[in-house]
């Protein structure tokens, strides 16, 4: 009887280890570089479409190569992700991030894990920028 209990406990323990996803915040990140404003096109978001997967850690590097300030906003998308941190110019910011503004030449690394599937709009909401082409799509599967 005792052997059966020990074996049952071992089976339960091993299956729970198989099912557990572990600490999703400590994966090797999938790197994605995105330009908000390029040298050739001040009002570009490049790439304009992002294909992401739930459960993966992403390191999104946002770079402003333009000559004016740009911002990145995707309110619905940011409700469905978990942010580990944003790193920029020697500063780490943790918590819920809804919007990132980048001065010309600025760069920020954003580490996050998508937790909800869907299609979301992203845009630069500075007056006139979205209309000039600063809009894109995030697809999370
Ligand atoms: Cu802009």
Task: List the SSEs and their pairings.
Elements: H1 2-19, E1 30-36, E2 45-46, E3 49-52, E4 58-63, E5 70-73, H2 75-79, E6 81-88, E7 91-93, E8 99-102, E9 107-114, E10 118-123, E11 135-140
Parallel strand pairs: 1-4, 3-11
Antiparallel strand pairs: 1-2, 4-9, 5-8, 6-7, 6-9, 10-11
The chain binds copper (II) ion.
How would you portray this structure in words?
This protein is α+β, with helices and mostly antiparallel strands. It has one domain: Sandwich (Immunoglobulin-like). The chain is 16% helix and 41% strand. The protein has two helices and eleven strands. It has helices at 2-19, 75-79; strands at residues 30-36, 45-46, 49-52, 58-63, 70-73, 81-88, 91-93, 99-102, 107-114, 118-123, 135-140. The radius of gyration is 20 Å and the shape is elongated. The structure holds copper (II) ion (CU). Residues 70, 124, 126, 129, 134 line the site of copper (II) ion.
CATH superfamily label: Cupredoxins -  blue copper proteins
Oligomer: single chain
Helix and strand succession? HEEEEEHEEEEEE
- Note the total helix count: 2
Strand percentage: 35-45%
Q: Strand order, main sheet: write it out.
A: 2-1-4-9-6-7
How many β-strands, per DSSP?
A: 11
Instruction: Report how far the terminal alpha carbons are from each other.
Output: 47 Å
Based on secondary structure, the structural category is: alpha+beta
Chain-averaged pLDDT: 91
């Amino acid at each position: 009887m005792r052997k059966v209990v020990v074996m049952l406990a071992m089976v339960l323990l091993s299956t729970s280890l198989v099912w557990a996803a572990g600490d999703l915040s400590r994966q090797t990140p999938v790197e994605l570089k995105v330009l908000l404003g390029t040298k050739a096109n001040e009002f570009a978001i490049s790439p304009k479409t992002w294909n992401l997967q739930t459960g993966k850690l992403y390191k999104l590097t946002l770079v402003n190569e333009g000559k004016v300030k740009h911002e990145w906003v995707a309110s619905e998308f940011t409700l469905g992700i978990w942010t580990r941190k944003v790193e920029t110019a020697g500063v780490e910011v943790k918590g819920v991030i809804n919007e990132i503004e980048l001065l010309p030449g600025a760069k920020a690394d954003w580490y996050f894990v998508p937790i909800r599937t869907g299609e979301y709009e992203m845009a630069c909401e500075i007056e006139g920028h979205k209309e000039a082409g600063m809009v894109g799509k995030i697809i999370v599967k």
